[in-house]
Amino acid sequence: MAIVKMKKLRVIAMAARREELLKGLLHLGCVEISEPADEMADPAWAALLRRETSRLGETRSQMTDVFAALAAIKRCGAQKDGLFIQRRSVSETEFLEGAALEQAKEVSDRVGRALESLSRLQSEENRLLSRQAGLRPWSSLDMPLETEETAHAVIRMGVLPGGTDVGAIRTALSAEAAAAEFYEISADKQQRYCLLICHKAEEACVQELLRPYSFSVTAFQGVTGTAAENLQKLETQLSENRKEQEAAQAVIAESAQSRDALRLYADRLTAEAAKDAGTERLLTDGTILFFKGWVPLENLEKVSGFLEGLGCAWDASDPDEADYPEVPVKLKNNWLTRPLNMVTEMYSLPAYDNVDPNPLMAPFFILFYGIMMADMGYGLLMMLGSLFITRKYRPKGTAGHLFSLLGLCGVSTFIMGAITGGFFGDFLTQAVKLTTGGDFALPALFTPLNDTLMILIGAMCLGFVQILTGMVISFVQKVRKGQILDAVWEEVTWWVVFAGIALAVLGVTNLLLYVGIVMIVVGSGWNAKGFGKVTAIFGSLYNHVTGYFGDILSYSRLMALMLAGSVIAQVFNTLGAIPGNFFVFLIISMAGNALNFALNLLGCYVHDLRLQCLEYFGKFYQDGGKPFRPLAMDTKYVDING
Q1: For residues 309 and 288, what is the distance between their CA atoms, to the nearest angstrom?
Q2: Is 499 exposed, middle or buried (0-12, 13-18, 19+ CB in 10 A)?
Q3: Taking residues 135-154, what's their average pLDDT?
Q4: CA-CA distance, 133 to 113, in Å (whole number)?
Q5: What DSSP element (H or E) covers 518?
Q6: What are the E-state strand segments in 80-176?
Q7: How does residue 4 score in pLDDT terms, banded at 50, 70 and 90?
Q8: CB-count exposure of residue 236 (10 Å: 0-12, 13-18, 19+)
């Protein structure tokens, strides 16, 4: 398993065959068209060629519409997807069929119009409800709202803060002998709704008198008739509005029968968008077009056959070392190592001239996960869950890798559970004791509670093996690059030291340890000068001793999580057994083990990931690779066969 070798591809074709070229590359799905930034920055290229144009903006707009339609159908059409989308298989002919796609576009447009209508109606409903809320406090006022004055009096409707004493206002008006009346129409927690009637000659005086009470005048612009009459009109309008909303929702719900066609249309638009994006990376003068890109060496033969069939001029060359940062990275793995792509991609892809970490990491990752989880019951659940999801929903990408990895880690968990005698903790032991009163225990080579020290030592030994593996990989890489001395003074020196310590502890000889110490002294400062040689020795000793010790000690988490998971499961089983009733025991045990399983499922992944990305990758891994993104039919809802 390795990083796929890439070829730098350069192609010249006739501009008239652009669509045929792009559709063919889309079908092949193995050519990445590069962004022509360097060419367009060169005045000579820029004077001859220009970027191609496409319908990318229009295609993306259609994608937005169809995804909005699918979301609306899910919301209004009572369509449930479940946790995962169940992909259906279609032929490439069906995927590209024009008539079906036109029908799907009509459905998408119809749902889009219904959504626009629904959005407009909902906005109108909110406006009507707002007006209704503003009028409701005045519903008992039997006076047209547009009335503002009579021949001798002014009429003002207004509001006061909820805590205002209206009686005090009336008393103040009486004390001033003002020709005015003040009435409270209604009130709520926030405000009091009041009516002021006063003589025109005393309006200014009355307004000044009301100022300390924060009286604010309310006006109903464009409203005629009483509040009750207007509320009745609004209720009628709201009823009509809601009927129209129901009609729009019914149109959306009826479109649910075309959901599969819409999903196919969405995937087709995604492919069209990829093709249009590729189009905009082409350079043309109107007669010919040119592009650069990348193709895996393993696909070069079929790409060359396609290009020659179109009469294209092309060449493919190996990337120079200076090109390595720009070379896209594609990992070639088998069924065992492919699921680890989600770990590698989460961390960072390797540089093109580095190694594929998946086959180097897979045995350790899967084994360590099983050690930390270590329960046959949990392992069985993981395997069944993985099998069900992958068979029923066939997830792709990161989700597909996740559930494949879950199954592999489930196998490891089951095996380690068989070794340690765990089946949902001591579930079987407690169950047999409750039902028969007898003693029962699964056979085990060792158990987390009784052999904790042995497990701790074994975990650190496994960590030491992984660290040594990382050092071996680093040694091989340096030798291949011609960095012989770096490999000797960095890796070989410490192998000698480790071997020397082992022989000294066993009482065989101390000679090899002395040789290792000499190599540290010589190798640490071999490329330093002056006093720097001395500081380099102490720096190397400190960094390596503390580094290796800390890294190895970090693997104690294997024992800690195994012990924690086992203890928590046994605690819940014991609590369930205390009442002496089997059904109570079953409920408590199931609830506790479900919680323990959920916590460990995530916790073991996080700690396993840390061991790989920090302790292991730190010894040899060089990241920074760019993912390989070919022009391809990348689908979300369907699988294309043939």
Answers
A1: 16
A2: middle
A3: 91
A4: 30
A5: helix 511-524
A6: 88-91, 153-161
A7: very high
A8: exposed
Q: What is the dihedral of CA 580, 586, 591, 594, to 10 degrees?
A: 130
Spatial separation of the C-alpha atoms in residues 381 and 387, rounded to whole Å: 10
Whether this prediction's pTM lies above 0.90 is answered by no
| Cβ-Cβ contacts under 8 Å for 345 (sequence gap 6 or more) | 398, 627
Cβ-in-10-Å burial (0-12, 13-18, 19+) of 123 comes to exposed
Given the structure tokens 């792709």, which residue do they identify? 396
How far is residue 385's CA from residue 414's CA, in Å, rounded to a whole number? 14
- Of 122, 120, 75, the closest CA to residue 252 belongs to 75
Q: What is the pLDDT of residues 268-281, one digit of tens each?
A: 999 999 999 999 99
The pLDDT value recorded for residue 438 is 81
Residue of 94 and 187 predicted with greater confidence: 187
Q: Which amino acid is residue 597, in one-letter code?
A: F
- Which residue type does 254 have? E
Q: List C-alpha distances in Å: 84 to 269, 344, 403.
A: 21, 23, 12
Q: Which of 68, 36, 63 is nearest to 50 (CA)?
A: 36
Average pLDDT, stretch 115-139?
94
Q: How far is the C-alpha of 510 from the C-alpha of 518, rounded, in Å? A: 13
Residue spans of beta strands (DSSP E) within 50-142: 50-51, 88-91
Is residue 274 within 8 Å of 632, Cβ to Cβ?
Answer: yes
Among candidate residues 207, 139, 132, the one with its CA nearest the CA of residue 169: 207
Q: CA-to-CA distance for 187 and 162, rounded, in angstroms?
A: 7
**Contact in structure between 574 and 568 (CB atoms under 8 Å):** no
pLDDT at residue 397, as a whole number:
84
Residue with token string 């032991």: 429
Distance from C-alpha of 132 to C-alpha of 90, rounded to nearest angstrom: 53
Does the structure show a pLDDT above 80 at 630? yes
CA gap 580, 590 in Å, rounded: 16
Cβ-proximal residues to 375 (8 Å cutoff; 6+ apart), any chain:
413, 416, 417, 420, 422, 423, 424, 425, 565, 566, 569
β-pair partners for 640: 90
- C-alpha 470, offset from chain centre: 30
Model pLDDT for residues 517-576, shown as the tens digit of each residue: 788 777 665 555 544 555 656 666 656 667 788 889 999 999 999 999 999 999 999 999
Of the candidates 28, 1, 145, the one whose C-alpha atom is nearest the C-alpha of residue 631 is 28
For residue range 423-457, list pLDDT tens digits in order: 999 999 999 998 888 888 889 999 999 999 999 99
Beta bridge pairs of residue 294 = 8, 32
Angle at alpha carbon of residue 387, lines to 381 and 393, rounded to 5°: 125
What are the beta bridge partners of residue 396?
Answer: none
Quick: pLDDT tens for 311-354.
999 999 999 988 888 999 999 888 889 999 988 888 889 999 88
| Residue 408 structure tokens | 């592999």
